[in-house]
Design goal:
The chain is an alpha+beta fold. It has a domain of 73 residues: Copper binding periplasmic protein CusF (OB fold (Dihydrolipoamide Acetyltransferase, E2P), Beta Barrel), CATH 2.40.50.320. It is 23% helix and 43% strand. The chain has one helix and five strands. Strand 4 and strand 5 form a beta hairpin. It is rod-shaped and about 80 Å long. It starts with 8 loop residues before the first helix and ends with a strand.
C-alpha cells in the first residue's frame, strides 16, 4: 500500500496563482474592448480619411476619432461612416491608442 502524497502549502500557492492567471487571461479581452463613451454632435465627417469630429453637447470638448474597418455602427440608417452627417447626435465609444482616438462603435440617437 502506498502512502498518500502530502500537499504542501507551496502547492496551494502555486495552484492559486495559476488559477488567477487563467482568470485574468480570460477576462483581458473583454476589459480591453470596453471603451469610453463620448456623446455629442457631429461637426465634420471625412469618409475618405476615416475621420469623424464630434463636439460634446453643453461643453467645448471636441474629439476627432479615427474610424476603421473594425468600427461598428448602430442606429436607424447608420451602416457606415458615409451615413453619418454633420449635425447628427451620436455617441462614440472609443479607445485611445497612442495619440489617436479609435472609434469602436458609433451610435446614432
Amino acid at each position: 500500500m502506498r502512502a498518500k502524497p502530502k500537499i504542501r502549502a507551496r502547492d496551494y500557492v502555486v495552484l492559486t496563482w495559476f488559477f488567477l492567471s487563467l482568470c485574468l487571461i480570460a477576462i483581458g479581452p473583454a476589459l480591453a474592448e470596453s471603451g469610453t463613451d463620448f456623446p455629442g454632435t457631429v461637426l465634420m465627417v471625412e469618409p475618405a480619411a476615416g475621420k469623424l469630429s464630434v463636439k460634446k453637447d453643453g461643453g467645448g470638448t471636441r474629439f476627432t476619432f479615427v474610424v476603421n474597418d473594425k468600427t461598428k455602427f448602430e442606429g436607424a440608417g447608420l451602416n457606415s461612416l458615409k451615413d453619418v452627417k454633420k449635425g447628427d447626435n451620436v455617441t462614440v465609444n472609443y479607445v485611445v491608442t497612442g495619440s489617436q482616438y479609435i472609434a469602436q462603435k458609433v451610435s446614432k440617437e
